[in-house]
């Protein structure tokens, strides 16, 4: 929960910063395999979330902080014009709308992580599942999970590294031309 709050809390600073001239990176390109998802970068993200969680002292205060953060971010983003470009903390100039897609991905996949941590059945809202699947496959390739014999949730768990993929499954994924995103 602390990590999800942190990844959303980047937005006020991004919106207050000077606007880049043009977007150069899409949401899919944001998840490219480079240093941003290297083990040391992942460890730094985990440490930041742990520090934030420790500051909150309780689950209730963490939930209250998240509630205040998402409401502020929602208000700020709604005030921005269509086509607004922001610079991510990684230096990527991208459309605000594309960056917001990356936040949906973060909330969705960490919701799967949370369900796993709590020993609960994983779930994802249909809207979030649509966003993540479209990002992975493109909006015209919505039938890919069925081509693999997977439910949509199983596909999303495998595609985001939450469920291991076998060698045979990897071969079929390659044959279908599916590209996994690099996720930390």
From TrEMBL:
| A single MF term (Gene Ontology) | metal ion binding
Tell me which residues make up the Mycothiol-dependent maleylpyruvate isomerase metal-binding domain. 2-115
What is the protein name for this chain?
Mycothiol-dependent maleylpyruvate isomerase metal-binding domain-containing protein
Q: What organism is recorded for this protein?
A: Streptomyces afghaniensis 772
């Amino acid at each position: 929960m602390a990590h999800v709050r942190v990844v959303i809390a980047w937005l006020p600073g991004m919106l207050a910063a000077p606007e880049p001239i043009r977007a150069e990176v899409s949401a899919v390109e944001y998840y490219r395999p480079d240093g941003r998802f290297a083990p040391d970068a992942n460890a730094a993200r985990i440490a930041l979330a742990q520090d934030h969680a420790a500051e909150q002292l309780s689950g209730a205060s963490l939930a209250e902080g998240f509630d205040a953060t998402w409401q502020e971010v929602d208000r700020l983003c709604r005030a921005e014009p269509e086509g607004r470009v922001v610079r991510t903390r990684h230096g990527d100039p991208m459309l605000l709308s594309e960056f917001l897609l990356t936040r949906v991905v973060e909330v969705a996949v960490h919701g799967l992580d949370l369900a796993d941590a709590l020993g609960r059945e994983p779930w994802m809202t249909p809207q979030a599942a649509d966003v993540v699947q479209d990002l992975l496959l493109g909006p015209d390739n919505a039938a890919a999970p069925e081509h693999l014999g997977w439910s949509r949730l199983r596909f999303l768990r495998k595609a985001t590294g939450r469920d291991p993929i076998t060698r045979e499954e990897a071969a079929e994924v390659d044959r279908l031309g599916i590209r996994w995103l690099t996720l930390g």
